[in-house]
Amino acid sequence: MDRTQLLLTLSIALFALGLTGVMIRRNALVMLMCMELMLNGVILSLVTFAERTATLSGAVLVFLVFVVAAAEIAIAIPMVLLLSRQRHTLDVGAWSELKG
Amino acid sequence: MSPADLLLYFFAAAALAGGVLMLIARHPMRVALALISSMISLAGIYAILGVHVIAVFQVLIYVGAVMVFMVYVIMLLDVRDPSFLERYGRAVLPSVALAAVLAVALGAAVSRGGMMSAQHLAALQPGSTGASFAVQPFSVEFLERYWLHFELTSVLLLAAVVAAIAVVKAGRRHDG
Question: Which domain holds residue B28?
Fold first, then answer.
């Protein structure tokens, strides 16, 4: 297995692990962290392709994705905290009526 | 096998182990620590690939900013929360099966290897061969060609700060 294939396989594995976590865990904060793991898997594949093709714009794109992820977390965590203050739990089952 | 390849395998295994631990661990603090170890392993992989700028950003932004924020929030929470005691929801087996099917499908595409062959990647290449990912070329390229995007990220961060404050204020009003 050459290096590119190893890294892409790792990125797929991280994405699948994060997806599993988002689907099976009950704690809203843990689900957020599993989403971060999925994002990290995708970024790994982005960096791999940028390095293989020697394109600096790929590295710039990774930097921009980092900034967007930081902004996303800065908004997502206050929302999770507010929701947990309303229902006094972080269990996503407490909001099951959002299924519609 | 060269030492760099050995290190690459080591960091890849560490990143995977961190991901698996995230699914097993019960307390969110342990999940956060597993995620941090996984992210640091990924930073090691980026450093081995020679993309030092991104390795530094991974540690600074992800571990240094995002995960520290996450750890603070976990410490603010009530440890008697029921979701801390019971880890999994109802649809565990279907979810794992779905993720496994996705992973196998993507893995089959990767192992066929058509899209990562050297010729294909060379065809993608826009002519700038041998670009080094050191700090200086990155910064020059970043601030000369992508300065507008750099400025736009500051606008985005400002909007995120305002939105976070608005969310907290709206919550206060709701509580009365």
Answer: 1-87
